[in-house]
Amino acid sequence: MKKIIALLLACMLIVTCFAGCGAKDNNKLVMATNAAFPPYEFKADDGSFAGIDVEIAGLIAEELGLELEIVDIDFGAIVAGVETGKYDIGMAGLTVTDERKESVNFSTSYATGIQSVIVKSDSTYASFEDFYTGFDADGNPVGVKEGIKIGVQQDTTGDIYSSDVPAKWGFGETNVERYKTGADAVEALKSGKVTAVIIDNEPAKSFVNANEGLKILDGSYAEEDYAIAINKEDTELLDKVNDALKKLTDNGEIAKIVNKYIPANADEK
User: Fold this and answer.
1) How many percent of the chain have pLDDT more than 70?
2) Domain count of the chain?
3) Are residues 189 and 125 in the same domain?
4) pTM for this one?
């Protein structure tokens, strides 16, 4: 009888351990991001997290009565981490795509992103359309000029769009070079390893301002909506985040944050 009781107690101890070990802290909102995407998320000089997404997430956490915890990971791991429940939300200038919607839910959009093209200042290309050999009767590209190499941050929409076939305004897998961060792609451009870098417009402006000898081509390569990734099973959190976003939009707080990092009169180049 004592052995049975001891066994039962041992089993209860194991169950208790599994229930407690690795359990989420219900007082925190854990945000997965990639802090190499200014002005949406980056590391400040003192090592703290800063940026549009960081401040919006902080206000959302306040609205939910939670403490915001930020985890800096590879961009390509954000959606998977939210999908498995490792993180509560994903914010990283994250574009809503059909493929990502298969893995996670998205909040209402809180910002619009533009994909821009960075080249060297002495580049002879006037727009990304100059990278193609020609266009068919419908105006779609028929091929890519020899020697064109596009640098992108891996797993971003810039990567997804660029890697598509020319007929869909991509450049083909063989003409795209993937890098871990946008900064790495820009370094490749500066050293002549790629012809251009395709990345979101605001980070593009930050990189051009920080690196002499670069410019952004006129026009946008693509336009898209940014939203917050949330686990598909956590519909309660989705509703709460959407309610918070609506309140913060209606009272002007989100516009205030965006204007802080992207002044309305800022040069769009």
Assistant:
1) 88
2) 2
3) yes
4) 0.72
